[in-house]
Amino acid sequence: MTTEALITLIAFLMVSSGVLLVYTLVGTRRTRLDDRLDDLEMQGSSSAAALPESGSGGMGFTASRPAPANAFTETTLPRLGNALMPNDEEERTALGARLIQAGFYGRQSLAIFLGVKLLLIAGPALVGLTLGLSGLVPTEYAVLGGGCFGIIGMIGPGFWLDGRKQKRQTSLRRALPDALDLLVICLEGGLSLPGSLRRVGAELRTAHPLLAFELNIVQREIQLGSSPGESLQKMGVRTDLEEMRGLASVITQSERFGASLVKSLRVHAETLRSKRQQYAEEMAAKAAVKVLFPTLLFIFPAIFVVILGPAAFQIMEHLATVMNR
Question: What is the pTM of this model?
Fold first, then answer.
């Protein structure tokens, strides 16, 4: 076997091994479908039983998973958060609305969030200063590192809060068409709108526990005297979903003008399904562009090595022969 053939074979084996390794790592990775099925299985055994009690008057830090009551979260963090509490009422209201839209319904959610933010800002600076004074790390590096992590701790909670809100909205947006279909079936079966909302919330506890929790809040507000349209409008404010505000408008207009609620809800459900399909098509169209950069960075270099590698060695041997002459 010649040297060129041996080099080509070695390059081919290296590239093939690398591709096989990447395929093994990626192919055995859990998909989003597997994670969702596991979540549904866990929610079927736990969330279905715990959901009705979670809408009681004393809600915890989160809407779906109440925070455990302890001295640190109930007293220490709120006291720390009061140090960062904005003086402007509008700023406090805006931050409180962001927390509610992210699913934090507790009365002390704002103070706890600001307390955690203060810890993330001051904690790294204190740790860096301690390491610098103790001599374990050079003082300038310790202070610089603590300041950088403190800046990350200052802006990081805001990004985390926005990400949690977006994830919550995605879950609600995915569940809303199914809920509207069940609502139409219940209304056609002769149930009233409050009774239909109660039945839909009970049916969706396993498949969509977050939407079932919100419908449970809507049902409690209706029991306190609010109309279904007003309760759903409040739900639209809590979730910051245009689809939910549209649903509230449809129900409010049907109550005001006496239009057929079943037909309006059926049309609204078809509209939401069309939007969901268009969103899926949009994401599929973006996938072709997103896969371009991994192709350029990882696949093309391997192809160039396999194709141009033997030619490069031949050119080097020819140059070496010419120079020896």
Answer: 0.66
